[in-house]
């Protein structure tokens, strides 16, 4: 937990039955994607470089997104996985020349991220925490 003034930010993990199911899905699909990519990229010059590093990092950040116990951890996983997708897209787009589409996707993702950050701040102001359990215990929903 990091404390700055009267703001506490938790970097904890929460594992329940739904999290375990999502962990199996993320790791299972990630494994299948890696197996397919090894076969697909076998004859490519850049085999085993940035593309595979971004895939492994994507799985790591997806696991953080799934296991995080707060909206801040969810945001870290969201941003990390988005950054990995952007890296993989840049590697693939350089070969095809569709950089305008990649730039448009990047800009739209940043707009969505701004809304996510705004939502976290509003939740913190309303509930005094960004932890899932504390927010859900607030019972301020109509």
Question: What's the layout of helices and strands?
Answer:
Elements: E1 2-4, E2 7-9, H1 17-40, H2 50-67, H3 71-96, H4 99-127, H5 132-137
Antiparallel strand pairs: 1-2
Helix pairs in contact: 1-2, 2-3, 3-4
H/E element sequence: EEHHHHH
Gap from first CA to last CA: 31 Å
Q: List segments where confidence is low: pLDDT < 50 over at least 5 consecutive residues.
A: none
Strand content: under 5%
How many structural units, i.e. domains? Answer: 1
Q: Residue share in helices? A: over 70%
Total number of helices: 5
The major beta sheet can be summarized as: 2 strands, antiparallel
Shape designation: flat
Strand order of the largest sheet: 1-2
Describe the structure.
A hairpin with a 2-residue loop joins strand 1 and strand 2 (7-9). The chain has a two-stranded antiparallel ribbon with strand order 1-2. It contains 5 helices and 2 strands. With 142 residues, it is mainly α. The chain has one domain (10-131). Helices cover 73% and strands 4% of the residues. The two termini are 31 Å apart. Helix 1 packs antiparallel against helix 2 (50-67), helix 2 runs antiparallel to helix 3 and helix 3 (71-96) packs antiparallel against helix 4 (99-127). The mean pLDDT is 82. It has helices spanning 17-40, 50-67, 71-96, 99-127, 132-137, and strands at 2-4, 7-9.
Which features does this protein show?
single chain; mainly alpha; 142 residues; 2 strands
